[in-house]
Amino acid sequence: MARIVMKFGGTSVADIDRIHNVARHVKRETDAGHEVAVVVSAMSGKTNELVGWVQSMARTAGSGTPFYDAREYDAIVASGEQVTSGLLAIALQSMGVDARSWQGWQIPVHTDNAHGAARILDIDGSEIVRRMGTGQVAVVAGFQGIGPDNRVATLGRGGSDTSAVAVAAAVKADRCDIYTDVDGVYTTDPRIEPRARRLPKISFEEMLEMASLGAKVLQVRSVELAMVHKVRTFVRSSFDDPDAPGMGDFENPPGTLICDEDEIVEQQVVTGIAYAKDEAQISLRRVADRPGVSAGIFGPLAEANINVDMIVQNISEDGSRTDMTFTVPSGDLDKALAVLAKVRDTVGFDVVQSEAGLVKVSVIGIGMRSHAGVAATAFKALAEKGINIRAITTSEIKISILIDGPYAELAVRTLHSVYGLDKQ
Ligand code: ADP
Ligand code: ASP
Ligand code: MG
Predict the structure, then answer these.
(1) Ligand 3 centroid vs 321 CA: distance in angstroms?
(2) One domain, residues 43 and 188
(3) Is the keyword Kinase assigned to this protein (predicted)?
(4) How far is Cα 98 from Cα 83, in angstroms, rounded to an integer?
(5) Does 424 reside within a domain?
(6) Is the pLDDT of residue 360 over 70?
(7) d(CA 373, CA 18)
(8) Which H/E stretch holds residue 381?
(9) Which residue has better confidence, 1 or 50?
(10) Under DSSP, is residue 194 helix (H, G, I), strand (E, B) or coil?
């Protein structure tokens, strides 16, 4: 007998039939004698709908850009998960499985005060563990917890993955299964490249990069938690027949294991390609070239909570003025331009140019640490397709390239194939 946390994403609980199907996956594990806790997302599309309601209410109430209180945003968007946890508990009960729904505050899942993008600080798993001992399944509403202000707090989009791994760590589960609409982690998004291959295993470091560079299959924070707390995490499909052979295999369930790099025997140089749409580029022309200028620009942007990436500074021609180019998420472009307008006189620069709708494509692989020429291969392949590169950043295990939006899919497929990742 083992202890398993099972998480089901939005498409897996999209309607009543699918929730019944999810209940069959859960029953398979309880029938096998395992202790189970479940974490659920909102029905697919629900969170977007709720966010849309918040935005249109804010727009109706005021004017121009919607401004709303993050605590009320959380009160509204957390409701989607409340519904699915109750529905799944009913489905399980109707199949003879003892089950009870739990909202974040009831467990409790304690978070910090960053409403809308809160971090889990600690989870008291004792009551869930006690009930597991009696055979009861806890069905936990993902994506939500309770902040120090005693109010519901949500964990940022995709946050149910993080709820699941955090619950698994809190109850010391033997395994955390993230069920989704694909049957594992692929070499790139299988919806963009049908020749993408499913990876049997991927290292924590590579999964962290894939997630933070746009692969939405796991929320970044969930991978961090799995790595720190050594949670054995699998990504697998909820659309597989719950009772097909091998589905209940404890050691080797179908899917992708996220694990330490030494568990991977055949390490490739490049493991995967990720992409992030909706990047914006800002260029400051003729910036004073003296100490303190970068701090004067990026300090205020950080204070405004704007995530700056890919910074490129040119050599100044006359030793006194330079150009500075960087990227921000498109959604933050207006806010960033407003911040820059305020610091323009103190920092000293001439013009600000900006462009939204760009795409960052990234090549990821631990093997890059010991192989030269990986970046050059990417640049040559993109050049052959006539794709212009706007900016480049690299780290030990990744190369990110900023390109124009319309070339996103071509660039992903080109890189996928040039590194030999295509399915044979
Ligand atoms: P859920 O609702 O279950 O949380 P998500 O939509 O958040 O599911 O994540 C699953 C999606 O992630 C897949 O449908 C797929 O399109 C996308 N995805 C992006 N990159 C990858 C990848 N490398 N491997 C698998 N899926 C990926
Ligand atoms: N329902 C939330 C979202 O759509 C959380 C999740 O699904 O993980 O972002
Ligand atoms: Mg998700």
Answers:
(1) 45
(2) yes
(3) yes
(4) 18
(5) no
(6) yes
(7) 47
(8) helix 374-384
(9) 50
(10) coil
Residue position matching structure tokens 């399980």: 92
Tokens of 157: 């989009």
Ligand 1 centroid to 160 CA: how many Å?
Answer: 13
Closest-CA residue to 363 (of 333, 386, 389, 384): 389
Q: What is the CATH number of the domain that holds 220?
A: 3.40.1160.10
How far is residue 155's CA from residue 141's CA, in Å, rounded to a whole number?
12
Contact 156, 116 (CB under 8 A): yes
Q: What is the CATH number of the domain that holds 371?
A: 3.30.2130.10
pLDDT digits (tens, 9 = 90+) for 53-104: 999 998 776 555 667 899 999 999 999 999 999 999 999 999 999 999 999 9
- Which numbered ligand comes closest to the C-alpha of 47? 2
- Assigned token pair, 27: 């029953």
Among 180, 197, 277, 359, name the best residue to mutate to test ligand 1's pocket (greatest count of ligand atoms within 8 A of Cβ).
Answer: 180
Cα three-residue angle 230-231-236, rounded to 5 degrees: 140
Task: Report d(CA 29, CA 249) in Å as an integer.
Answer: 10
Q: Considering the entire predicted model, what is its pTM?
A: 0.94
Tell me which residue range forms the domain holding 368. 272-418
Residue to substitute in 163, 187, 188, 189 for testing ligand 1 pocket (most ligand atoms within 8 angstroms of CB): 189
Cα separation values, 232 from 124, 224, 290, Å? 20, 12, 49
Same domain, 411 and 328: yes
Q: Are residues 137 and 247 in the same domain?
A: yes
In the block, tokens 């291969």 appear at 377
CA angle 168, 173, 178 (to 5 degrees): 55
Same domain (yes/no): 225, 325: no
CB 153 within 8 A of CB 50: no
Structure tokens at 331: 């959604």
**415 near 375, Cβ under 8 Å?**
no
